[in-house]
Design goal:
Layout (H helix, E strand, L loop, with lengths): L1 H20 L6 E4 L6 H7 L4 E19 L4 E20 L2 H10 L4 E9 L2 E12 L11 H13 L4 H8 L7
Antiparallel strand pairs: 1-3, 2-3, 2-4, 4-5
Length: 173
């Protein structure tokens, strides 16, 4: 039964991805920071649609960017052989992605391959925001950390990954 459910979920995701690619340019975005929070993502990108929980292999998550907009440390990722970053794949319209660029000031778009949590064999090409790694980054503020954790819990990221996010120390101000 469990195998049948897993196969039907993989089949569903394949149908969503295949259908989405017919007749238009598809833009998938991989969120690993505060944009995992569904409410924030809906405010920023009203067209966004959840596709799947995914794993980005050979990368590592860190609070390694000082956001001038939030005035605190924010999420970033960098290559790390053997590492993995978990996040959310959204389907986002081109206009909404352009709007997201304004929120992701200081980050650049890159294209990477992620793997659906339930299918580790078929890569999904996504856009992700990555910034240059900075030194002496302040901790995130409590609200930023709350958004990351809320998203991780909402989408049920792996427990050990959520535990890692919970251990991030937030600023006390």
């Amino acid at each position: 039964m469990r195998r049948r459910l897993a196969l039907s979920y993989v089949s569903y995701c394949h149908k969503v991805l295949t259908k989405s690619l017919q007749g238009k340019t598809q833009l998938y975005y991989f969120a690993y920071g505060s944009n995992m929070d569904w409410q924030q993502m809906q405010r920023r990108c009203p067209s966004s649609r959840f596709i799947c929980v995914a794993r980005l292999p050979d990368y590592q998550f860190a609070i390694a960017r000082h956001s001038r907009l939030r005035d605190c440390g924010t999420a970033n990722i960098f290559t790390a052989p053997g590492g993995a970053v978990w996040g959310i794949v959204y389907d986002v319209s081109e206009p909404d992605l352009a709007a997201l660029d304004d929120f992701e000031d200081g980050y650049r778009r890159e294209q990477v391959s992620v793997y659906d949590r339930n299918d580790g064999h078929h890569p999904i090409t996504v856009l992700v925001y990555i910034a240059a790694r900075e030194q002496s980054v302040p901790p995130p503020n409590a609200e930023y950390k709350r958004l990351i954790l809320a998203g991780a819990r909402h989408w049920q990221l792996p427990q050990d990954y959520c535990a890692m996010l919970e251990r991030i120390e937030a600023a006390t101000r």
